[in-house]
Amino acid sequence: MENLKFTCKRTRFAKMTVDTVFKRIFGSEDYKLATIGLIKGILGIDVVDVRFLRNELVRETQDSRGAFIDVLAECQDGTRVMVEMQNSRQDFFLQRMVYYASKIIAMQGDIGEWDYNFSETYIIAFLNFDIMGIVSGEELLAAAPNRYSFTYETREINTGALLPNSTRYKILLLEKFDKKIEELSTYPEKLLYLLQHASELTDVPENLQGDPYIDTVLAASEMAGFTKEQELQYFIDMRNEWDIINERKLAVREAVEKNTAEVTETIAKAFISKGMSPEIVSECTKLDIDTVKKLAEQN
């Protein structure tokens, strides 16, 4: 514990995108008001109360694929809301959300005779990574490169009529939200700011005060309220997150270095094909003379 404290800076508020912290805020009875505020503020639907459902989605058979999600809540009218924080890059993330939605709907089916009258289902997904080059993210960037909020639903093409009880998906890109503290006015803006910057705060800014939902979000993430076990798990999660980030940085650096070397050799081969001497090619490309001579032999 002490070693982890030494390597992890202690802050007033925990980093909210960390898995255990996110689930503590939006998936626990103690801070249920934060979940109600999230549903009302992000989805714009009226909700008075929620109850939390199991976060392991149903398996059709013993051998079929299971799935664990961050938060699954049911509103007082039966509406189901899944909330997911995704920190790792994944090509088919949006497709995974469709798969999860199908599981949530399947959970409502009655054994035996059933009329398929399931409740509305909403998916709220926060993406905490750069979606450049991500298959399911290309459409988002192409459609609106500077937007951070996207909504998907199923409608009839000609009339625009919404399919009854169509699943609705709310995708929020943290990397695209760049408002400063003084520019925040709505609940979604305040929440997105906190998801990115809460761990940097020592005091609560004035325009983040007075909202009971935001107050609950801050209370849930304040480290003074963590038990020793919760604090330890948080530091472990933070260390794991740093390991993943460092692995990504190394992979990017190696890719750049490899690409740079290949481009340089291609240029050198082009120079050689034009009759330039190995000495001049070496001087121009900064490749050592032996490497240039080997390229000349291959050419």
Describe this structure in words.
The structure is a single chain. The protein contains ten helices and eight strands. The mean pLDDT is 84. With 299 residues, it is α/β, with parallel strands linked by helices. The termini are far apart. It is 44% helix and 12% strand. It has helices at 2-7, 19-26, 32-43, 93-106, 138-143, 187-197, 212-221, 228-273, 278-285, 289-298, and strands spanning 50-52, 56-57, 67-68, 71-75, 80-86, 121-127, 149-152, 168-173. α2 (19-26) runs antiparallel to α7, α3 (32-43) packs across α7 and α9 crosses α10 (289-298).
Tell me the helix content.
40-55%
Quickly give the structural class: alpha/beta
Strand-residue proportion? 5-15%
The topology string of helices and strands comes to HHHEEEEEHEHEEHHHHH
Weakly predicted, low-confidence segments: none
What does the main sheet amount to?
6 strands, mixed
| Strand order in the largest sheet | 1-4-5-6-8-7
Average pLDDT, to the nearest integer? 84
- What's the end-to-end separation, in Å? 60 Å
Offer a quick outline of the entry.
The protein has 10 helices and 8 strands. The chain is of the alpha/beta class. It is extended, with a radius of gyration of 25 Å.
Question: Which key terms come to mind for this protein?
Answer:
alpha/beta; 299 residues; two-stranded antiparallel sheet; 44% helix
Which SSEs are present, and which pair or pack?
Layout: H1 2-7, H2 19-26, H3 32-43, E1 50-52, E2 56-57, E3 67-68, E4 71-75, E5 80-86, H4 93-106, E6 121-127, H5 138-143, E7 149-152, E8 168-173, H6 187-197, H7 212-221, H8 228-273, H9 278-285, H10 289-298
Helix pairs in contact: 2-7, 3-7, 8-9, 9-10
